[in-house]
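Hello,

Following up on my earlier ticket. Below are the two sequence lines again, exactly as submitted.
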Amino acid sequence: MKKSYDIIVIGAGHAGIEASLAAARMGKNTLLITLEKEGVALMPCNPAIGGTAKGHLVREVDALGGQMGISADDALLQIKMLNRGKGPAVFSLRGQEDKALYHEIMLGVLENQDNLEVVYDEVTEIAVRDGEVYGISAAESGFTEAKAVVMATGVYLNGKIIVGEESRESGPIGFRCATGLTRNLLSLGIDIRRFKTGTPARIARDSIDYDKMQLQEGEDDIGKFSFMHEGNLYNQLPCWLTYTNERTHEVIRKNIGRSPLYNGTIKGVGPRYCPSIEDKVMRFPDKTRHQIFVEPEGRDSDLMYIQGMSSSLPKDVQEEMYHTVAGLENARFIRYAYAIEYDCINPFELSSSLAVKRVKGLFSAGQINGSSGYEEAAAQGLIAGINAVKYVDGEHPFVLSRDEAYIGVLIDDLVTKGTNEPYRMMTARAEYRLRLRQDNADLRLTEKAYNAGLATKERYGRTLKRKAEIDEIIAAASKTRVRKENGGIFGRFEDVYVEKTISVKEALKHPGITFEVLKEATDAFDGYSPSALFSAEVMIKYEGYIEKEDAAIRDAKRLEEKVLPADIDYNELTGLRLEARQKLSAIRPATLGQASRISGVSPADITVLLIYLKTVKRTI
Amino acid sequence: MDTIVALSTPAGRGGICVVRLSGKPLGVAEKIFHSKALENSFLPAPNYMYFGRISTSEFSDLGYMVYFRAPKSYTGEDVVEFHLHGGTRIAEGVIGECVRNGARLAERGEFTRRAFLNGKMELSDAEGVIDMINADSAGAVRSAYRLMTGKLSLAVHEIQNRLSDVLTGLSAVLDYPEELEDETLPEVHAELIAIREKLKKFASSGTYGKMIKEGMDVALVGDTNVGKSSLMNAMLGYDRAIVSDIRGTTRDFVTDSFELNGKKINLADTAGIRQSDDVIEKEGVNRAISIIKDAKLIIRVFDATEKPEKNEMLDEALAEKNVIEIYNKCDLKKAPENAIAVSAKTGDGMDVLMEKISDFFDRDKTDGEEILTSERQLSAVLRAIEKTDEAISALEDGIPADCVISVLNEAWSALGEITGQTVSEKIIDDIFDKFCVGK
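Thanks for your patience. The regenerated structure is below:
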């Protein structure tokens, strides 16, 4: 271990890994410091990566030259495309992962990375002088110098695990937590809050009766997460689906007074989108059943993850309620469900580059910023890592906008809207879904990352090749003609009365017609890769809608580009409602577009600002 | 915040005129207004009218001053009003004196803009104010009042909420494809059709609203010398058009407006339609035909004393128009059975004709519905209909949910332009460009 580094990253979870790899790959001397080796790339909750909107994040991290997609592909147990039939914009990949393997793979990647050193120790202080970071202090290794520091401490800050009446200070799965750093952050003037999340029980694989559950298989012809990988995943492990029932709900209602969520023991704010089973039962009394997915934690693991049954009820109640579920009658508990409370920072403390506003050279990423999810963490880690490098080099920050990436939406939401619960990425949060598709993440982002110095030449080359292929397919689709006839491929989807030839491009605009179906009518597209064909198909099929969205983006840009003067005194603008005045003064948005997204700032307030800007301009 | 000044009553002669100042007007007022009650200290009580002398460098005049203290004033700022004797000279002199003492001339719409900036009104309320100022009939004042009191915004808001519910349901499925399999979601297709119907009602109220605001165009047409100009004068209640026995007296069209049961009628008297070699009369006939094209209602006038001649040119122009046929000069000869008989000369039957016009005006009225009165609102509703339509056919064509959502979002934003939930610079520019100085 050296005395001095360019960049130090605290924490080796999903955010810390991306941050440290990005920094090292961009040529900076980087130290990754974390509590324990076993905690590296840990998945303390579900054994899955991706899902709706999260799958988009993984593809974007990958397109930018991050690691998550590549490692997730290597540790896949099963892969699925969600939301088929609901439109290409919301197609989302979800992979079941081998947790132990993922940890092993990531450890290997970190150890083999040039410019990167990994040290196991507890950071107790971030060293700040005159509002600027100059290093860190750790329990065993003492002071180490750095030009920039990235905090990616996850749920480890003052972590507290709660199971029924029992609670203890702890990180996830009994890992030790960090107690000193919160005090340090408070002394730097940073606003700290307390969030809560939870995880269901782990059940012994051989104690489950799978015959009473529905089989949930993966798909073996849909490719993988990373744009660097070709080919499909075979020999997949299945998951299982079962349901709670009235008996389960009865057990919960009977014991609700013993739930720390309901008796006031837990004060942290939990996520609405990932409620505990007791929450679901109490809030939706009319629902007679809730879904339970049973997922393997690894190929060689004895653990099954019981998705949908997270809880903080006492152990005896957990056993009683799990045993009411079909297939879980004899379930043997390896680990009980628990809730975990942790400290995180108010994301209003951050700028769009994920820099902490109060302290120069300090960046923050992942769950500590109030988000939840492995993918959300990785996305922030990557951006914080890149921006730590940009900071050290004295360059402009690397910021993605809301019309460029889900990552842009994620970070903009956090730093301008803030969050009162752990923030999860959802497709509904993105305004421009038709453009921000998972299939075109490389076309949207790889060039940017290549220019920023992160994406490799090989990756950029692949993107250029795929782009050329897509262009070629679209050109060929205009030129190639197929017969439209009764009983042919079109007849399957609609009545055809006139026989004529139409171009493949026109044909694709018919519902039900895809390149796959068109194979019967033409062999002109046989040589192209499935991924290029898919992207081209979406671009042709939804051309009209995509164009409209592009127009909306251009419209929004006008608002986005209106800069709010740095010296504007919002308290003087009495037309603004009081709440808006306070929020605008606190967050100080850079543009009118950013201001419009602050909760508590209404469109009427924005109109006031617009008029104000006009009058200011006039008097100058 | 600087102090602005403008004439708040219409320019021109009148019994009194009002000059209004907003911003920090007391300092300006102190220099100009001298009253016994304020002799010792110039601290007028708000909302009281003070009598005194208003002096400028050129003249002085007796008048009143009222002070409205912020925020309880039209603009939300301190406001002073001078109530002066009417007359351009006096108003100009006082405004000039205010400017010399530190005020500046208000820009177009600046008083209302300040009221808006200071949170005294919302966007659609602001539009109501413009309409109120411009209203020339009781009906227009009523609908402007409804707009100003935010009723319209409430009604549109309700439709917006229904659209939001549809959007929420559609979006939830996208984010929770597996978890929502048990949920019963709102029937999207049926609900969208219901929303579209509601919007269409709004749009038709828009046509009516426009008529209420701008008046209904009515044209008097017919052969030469059937008494159209006499009728026009009778309807207006004063001699607007030249009347003579000579055929073809009216060469150009003549227009004027009057109020009928609180509705504004824009009446046009046209040249008699006939074939003619006279260049000027020919042009008059052409103009008459183009007036017919634009009019909402045509009153075709026949002469009760003469047998109607075939007039192909006119018949052609009137095809597909709404026409009321009347027989004039019924004081001289009885009109045919069941026909509307009037006499411009004696006034007989004029009440029947007026009633017909008034009824026709209300034909498109939708009862109890809020009425759209501005072009901007109407175009926003039309856009919302178009987008809802698009979403409905997309659903029918099996276009996936993500595209349907993007179209519905556009419909929602279009409505937001009425309720003020969508921000667009264009709206603001448009609205404030319409404000007249002083209000």
